[in-house]
Amino acid sequence: MSSFPPVDVTIYPYDCDAYGHMNQAAYMLMFERARWDALARGPGQDLFRRHGVWPAVRRATVDFQAPAFPGDVLRVDFEVEKIGGSSLEMRQRATRLRDQATIAELQILFVMIDQAGKPARMPAEVAAAFGGRPTARPGELMRHDVGDVTLAVDARGDGPALLLVHGYPLDHTLWAHQVATLARWRRIAPDLRGAGASDAPAGGYSMASYADDLARLLDRLGVERAVVVGLSMGGYIAFELLRRHRQRVMGLVLVDSRADADGPEQRKGRDDMIELARSKGAAAIAERMVPRLLGRTTQQTQPNVVEQLRDMIGRCPVPGIVGALGAMRDRPDSTPLLPGIDVPTLVVVGAEDELTPPAMSRTMASAIPAATLTTIPGAGHLAPLEAPTAVTRVIAEFLEGLPKP
Ligand code: MLT
Who contacts 222 (Cβ-Cβ below 8 Å, separation ≥6)? Predict the structure, then answer.
């Protein structure tokens, strides 16, 4: 996996105009030179040619912030902002070394074209070379096109990959503490289709489509295998990943989840919730769900978490809520899968989880060979949000014990 380290570029007199300032054309050339230098040091300048594609510039905007003069050395850094099925958006920033002044920023959009000049699919190696960079600023989301939707993803760090899959009706911020602190791992926390800042189409929701989205996201990021951490519905999706993309999963953490399918009563409950979401919106879902999702200790002692959860559910798009409810209602029973799970597995449950109570997790863990179970005191169904430090610690211990990939 190649990341793009900054490149230093020296300004020469011939880059400058009659007044001795670097001229406009020279800025474009300087940014271009820096890109080719970075490629030469990383995946190679022939990265595109060896895949039969070429990055055609479709749009470039330079924001000039301060003049540069002959002899200045500019440090150019790179930030990939979006990788699509055939496009790539990148930002380059030039900072003068001697006084750290930002000289200029370039925002540039490329489209991959083939030899006939027609748009071409982004080759996996090219996506990997660019997608390997962690998000530059904490909290900033990258957007990745995974087919019929674009997913917003918080991706940080380097090392073996950890794919953190949120539950319903939530988003990637559920994993904020784990993403911020599980150093030495490449933390990948997407918003699922229909959640957070990801696209929320009117249809196309099922455990299969969620799992396929995630497999394509791993392709985009150049990740072959990941430890999959799934909370509740995220666990149902993890089971689907095992069914459909077995070779991508190198370990499993099931948090406040369950393996069985919905019974008739639960299916009816899903339909009622779909009705409620359609008629009254996300705020009504939040009203109904918050007391069920959080443990009593959290509800009594952590008003900030109650508020955070209300906000998270409130910003969930209604098509995504409706889609997730239908997908959960129709999900297959994963119980038959459990005895065949042969990757290291950790089961985590909040002691006060009423939706998927500890007894259920105990039964699930005992059906998975070599699974271990940890109970988190004082937490309900959303243990990573309610007891973030404790959950991060048990996940970190589990990761430490894994065979090195
Ligand atoms: C979740 O937390 O993902 C959902 O509550 C799971 C469910 O309703 O089955």
Answer: 1, 124, 125, 127, 128, 129, 131, 132
